[in-house]
Amino acid sequence: MPRFSSSSSALRSSEIRDLMKLAARSDIISFAGGMPDNKLFPVREVEELFGRLDLSRKQTAFQYGPTPGLPSLLESLGGFLADKGLPVNRDRLMITTGSQQAISILARVFLDPGDRALVENPCFIGALAAFRACQAETVGLRMDGEGVSIEELEREAARSDAAKFLYLTPYFHNPGGVLYSGERKRRVVETLAGKDIALIEDDAYGDLYFYEEDRPRLRPIKAEDPEGVDVCYTGSFSKILGPGLRLGWLLAPPEIHERCERIKQSLDACSPSFTQIIADEFIRSGLMAPYIKRVRREYRKRAELMGDLLEATLPPSVSWSRPRGGFYIWLTLPEQVDATELLKRSIRRGVIFVAGRTFDPEGRRNNALRLSYCNTDEKQIERGVPVLAEVLRQALEG
C-alpha cells in the first residue's frame, strides 16, 4: 500500500516559490514575485489604528472568532463590496485565510476525483494547485486580448460530462494582465446559463486599475446577478492592504456558502481575528480608498516605465500588451524559444522572471514568460529590463 495519498502526489512545487529564494539575494533583480512592495505598506497608519483601540477590542483581536468572520469586518467589508454593486444582502459573505483558501474551499465543495474544472490558459498557479489537490482534470481554455475563448467554452459546456465550474480572473488577469471586455463577460454568462456549471470569479486585482476610463469594465459579473448561473466571487486584502494579513473573502449563494463554511471549520476553524480587526478598522477609518489610490499611482508609474523600456529594447518578434492595471506583463516569445532555458541565462546575468510553463494547466507551453513590476523599484526596472532584452536577443540569434 502506498504511504502517501494520491492527492498529495498530484501536487508539484511552485516554481515561483522556488524563485523567491533567489530573489532574496542582493545581486538579483526580481521580476518574478507577484507581491506588493514592502515600502508601500501602511505601517504607521496601522500602528496608530491599533494603538487607539480600547482594551476590549484588543483582547478580541487575540481570541478565536466565528468561522464566517468577525461580524464587524463582515459589515464593513460588505459595505466596501456593496459599492461595487455586489449583492451582499442576498448572498452570503465569508472571510477566508487569503483568497487562496477561498479558491481551495470552493474546489473541495465542487470537485470529486476525476471531475473536470475549466480554467484559463494561462492560469493562476494557486488555482491550478487547489484543483489538482482535489485530483480534478483541469481543462485550459485559450485566451485572447478580451478574455477566454467563447468557442472553446461553448464546446466544453455542451459536453455530456460537463465541468463542475469555470474559474476566471477577469480583472488584470494573473499572469496575462488581461482586462476582460464587457462583451466577453456577457458571452461567458450566456454560455453558462442553465448548464449547471458554476462560475468562480476571482477579483484579486480589480481595485488596482490605472485609467479611469476602464472603470465600467471592472464591474463584477457577480454584480449583474446573472440568471441561471451560480457565481462565487472571491477577493483579497493581499494586493490592496498586505498579504501578511492572510485575509480574503468569498461571496456565494447561500447553499454554496453553507457547504463552504463546513469545510472551513474543518481546515482552520476561523481566520485570524487580529488581522480581521486591523482590516476592519482600516476600512472604517476611511483610509482604504486613499491608500489604494496611492499604491495604484505607484504601480502605474512602474508599469509605464517597464512598458517604455520593453518597447525600446525587445525584439519585434516578442508580443506583449501594456498593462492597464494589476501587477503583470505577459511576453509571448517565438515558438522555438524555451523560457526555462532563457531563465537560466537570465539568472546568470542577475535577473529573474517566471517561465510560462508554470501557468499552463498541462505544464507544457513554454514560449512565454511573466514579468512583475510591483515589487521592483524604478531603478531596478531601468537596470533589469535591458538585461532581459539582451539575453532574449542572444537566445534568438543563437
Q: How does this structure look, described?
A:
- By secondary structure, the chain is α/β, with parallel strands linked by helices.
- It folds into two domains: 6-42 and 290-397, Aspartate Aminotransferase, domain 1 (Alpha-Beta Complex); 55-284, Aspartate Aminotransferase, domain 2 (3-Layer(aba) Sandwich).
- 41% of the residues lie in helices and 14% in strands.
- The protein has 14 helices and 13 strands.
- The chain has helices at residues 6-9, 15-23, 43-52, 55-61, 71-82, 98-110, 125-133, 150-157, 182-192, 254-267, 273-284, 288-313, 339-348, 378-397; strands spanning 29-30, 92-96, 116-121, 137-144, 147-148, 165-168, 198-202, 231-236, 248-252, 328-332, 351-352, 354-355, 368-372.
- It has an eight-stranded mixed β-sheet with strand order 2-9-8-7-6-3-4-5. The protein has a three-stranded antiparallel β-sheet with strand order 10-13-12. Strands 1-11 form a two-stranded parallel ribbon.
- β3, α7 (125-133) and β4 form a beta-alpha-beta unit.
- It starts with 5 loop residues before the first helix and ends with a helix.
- The model has no long low-confidence stretch (mean pLDDT 95).
